[in-house]
Specification:
The protein is α/β, with parallel strands linked by helices. Helices cover 42% and strands 18% of the residues. It has nine helices and eight strands. An eight-stranded parallel beta sheet has the order 7-6-5-4-3-2-1-8. Strand 1, helix 2 and strand 2 form a beta-alpha-beta unit. The longest helix is centred in the last third of the chain and has 21 residues. It is globular. The two termini are 15 Å apart. Bound molecules: pyridoxal-5'-phosphate (PLP).
Length: 224
């Protein structure tokens, strides 16, 4: 078993002091590793692949809050819609509408985060600033979205050792988050989640105002 319980307790102490939620990213890791953290009290877990998430969810305790943090294809939403706590990677209005449709079928409001492109790399998914504004405008001004609740933003900084650049990208995301909250003050209480920070950059993320970090390798060891 590869779970680093010392790191878990250290990170929990750090996050609790700042009121930041920990999502333990368990992708590719066995259910026994998830159970080990669950026994220590961890309830939020993150997965990237639909099939893997569905299998693990069926085997593990029902009170786990499952975060889908990967790239979601429309045709696979239905498999996770019945239980997903938060879908982090909404990167188009089309995808939000498709999640909304599944949520309405199930009479659920599925929690979603809009993924914003902040990194320099071309490869990372996400909305640009204009697209974020269009999508939040559409969402907050239409009562049509009854199957989803947009809880905030998610982003990934560049994969680099340049901490100044990482800090700059995270500050950008934080200001987009703050601007949306102040543009829609009556929705700010529900638009309260800023998902940024991973094993390599979570201390910077906390400094920059993250409310939720997604940490995998520091807890479960590196992935092959
Ligand atoms: C894998 C993954 C993480 C966790 O990465 P670590 O570096 O192992 O902490 C966080 N967020 C997303 C979107 C991921 O895909």
């Amino acid at each position: 078993m590869a779970v680093d319980t010392l790191a878990y307790h250290r990170i929990c102490a750090e996050l609790t002091a700042r009121n930041v939620t920990l999502v333990a990213v368990s992708k590719t890791k066995p259910v026994d590793d998830i159970r080990a953290l669950y026994e220590l009290g961890q309830r939020d877990f993150g997965e990237n692949y639909v099939q893997e998430l569905v299998q693990k969810q069926a085997e593990l305790p029902a009170d786990i809050r499952w975060h889908f943090i990967g790239h979601l294809q429309s045709n696979k939403i239905k498999y996770i819609a019945p239980f997903a706590h938060l879908i982090h990677g909404i990167d188009s209005q089309k995808l939000l509408k498709a999640v909304d449709k599944e949520g309405r079928k199930l009479n659920r409001k599925i929690g979603c985060l809009l993924q914003v492109h902040i990194a320099q790399e071309e490869t990372k998914f996400g909305l640009n600033r204009d697209e974020v504004d269009l999508l939040t405008h559409a969402y907050f001004n239409q009562s049509a979205y009854e199957g989803v609740v947009v809880k905030g933003l998610m982003g990934m900084a560049s994969f680099t050792d340049d901490t100044v650049q990482i800090a700059r990208e995270m500050s950008t995301l934080k200001s987009v988050f703050d601007e949306i909250r102040s543009s829609y003050p009556s929705h700010a209480h529900q638009f309260d989640t800023l998902s940024m920070g991973m094993s390599g950059d979570y201390p910077i993320a906390i400094e920059k105002g993250s409310t939720l970090v997604r940490i995998g390798s520091l807890l479960f060891g590196t992935r092959s």
